[in-house]
Amino acid sequence: MQSDKWLLITGSAVRLGREIALAAAQADWGVILHYRGSSQEASETLQLLRDANRKAVAVQGDLQNPAGIDAFFSEALSLSNGRIGALVNSASRFEWDDLDSASLQTFQDHMNVNVYAPLLLCRLFARHLPNDLMGNIVNILDFKLSNPNPDHLSYTLSKYALAGLTQILARQLAPGIQVNAVAPGYMLPAPGQSDEEFQEKSKRTPLKRSAKLEDVVDAVSFLLNNQSITGQTLTIDCGLSFNSLHQDIGR
């Protein structure tokens, strides 16, 4: 039982972060739901967990603003009685740009949310980890790091930086904290993409299907519960990263 340990998941009101939160609660973690603007979705997820008699709280925080991260983490720490034993950096900024359109603003916006905020949260997590707990950090990357294309340039660069942070912290924070990553593949239709197109493009992977959301969640759960892994990245993409793509598959 892990009922005295809490898991902080950024971006956990919707999509992948929400599914990670639901699975963690089922595994008897206390869950700290983080959201920025998705207050209604966060409230609904929180109510769902409480109706199932699971320990859960929700904390609002803008990861775009580094100055507010200390206060956000302090609130999470207070609501969990100082028992945060794991951190999943799932929140991500994902906006399209390329070599021609990238600007200092688009670059900084992606770096703030996708790299600097996780860095600050990892530092706070390590400083406040209770002495009796083994810590665990899982960062969410992207399968395209294995075989990149020019689309979403600032986003992709930020995920490379987060992958590097994973490697550095796995070494620095051992033996008390494990640091790993999961790199999801093509799981959900891109904005504006039809389900038919999504299904057709999903068949281009070596396994002839898209990665499943639940498989990515299972990978995160595996890393949270295995005490012998650190500095590793699990790529969940049905082999899509083996293919050389000239643009994102969702385009």
From TrEMBL:
Keyword set, alphabetical order: Oxidoreductase
A Pfam family this chain is assigned to: adh_short_C2
InterPro entries associated with the record: NAD(P)-bd_dom_sf, SDR_fam
Record keyword Disulfide bond present: no
SUPFAM superfamilies according to UniProt: NAD(P)-binding Rossmann-fold domains
PANTHER family: OXIDOREDUCTASE, SHORT-CHAIN DEHYDROGENASE/REDUCTASE FAMILY (AFU_ORTHOLOGUE AFUA_5G02870), SHORT-CHAIN DEHYDROGENASE_REDUCTASE FAMILY PROTEIN
Family according to the record: Belongs to the short-chain dehydrogenases/reductases (SDR) family.
Protein name: SDR family oxidoreductase
Source organism of the structure: Lacibacterium aquatile
Lineage of origin: Bacteria, Pseudomonadati, Pseudomonadota, Alphaproteobacteria, Rhodospirillales
